[in-house]
């Protein structure tokens, strides 16, 4: 039944679709991966209380009764823009602004002194129609970097579904707050959180899944790039 749901949502995204069809697909996909009680997924959310503009999705990780940090932000655009370099550049720029605002908000909540770095990275996803790119904002950078192993590529929801599942699993493992400080060593996906190393390759942070768009089982497969790759 779940595969049918994703196939239905996937077919709703065509060249004439508006952004809401992309939102609908990613609403379900994010819920499928970031299902842990520690995660809060909010749609059309402000990255900071004093900001008027809203990101399409913000995922926060709850590390305590009074603490929830921004860990993933998502920006969606309508399918007709996917072949335009300027559309990708604009979307990445928009997402960067949201992520910097979210980072500043977290710094204020943690009461960090001037010059102190946030102790974790924040991750970003840009979806234009059926194509997705993955990014990371490190504490010491003000620009987005391509998520390791993505090489700036735009991944197609169906043709590259296994890669997308792999990257989402990695983001879950990198952002899920671990209580134990004896977790396995930190990986290339990001920084450790709350004194506990992240585990990007681990399957413990995400459900066993089939390909959302194609219905097939998963297998494994610098600065941020904003130019779309040729369609597969």
Rg result: 17 Å
**What is the β-strand count?**
7
Return the string of H and E elements: HHEEEHEEEEH
The oligomeric status of these chains comes to single chain
How many domains make up the coordinates? 1
CATH class: Alpha Beta
Approximately what portion of the residues adopt beta-strand conformation? 15-25%
Helix content: 25-40%
* Total helical segments: 4
* Mean pLDDT reading: 82
- In whole angstroms, the N-to-C terminal distance is 28 Å
Instruction: Assign the structural class, choosing from mainly alpha, mainly beta, alpha/beta, alpha+beta, or little secondary structure.
Output: alpha+beta
As for the CATH topology, it is: tt1808, chain A
For the largest beta-sheet, the strand count, sense and barrel status come to: 7 strands, mixed
Give the low-pLDDT segments.
Answer: 178-209, 215-222, 228-232
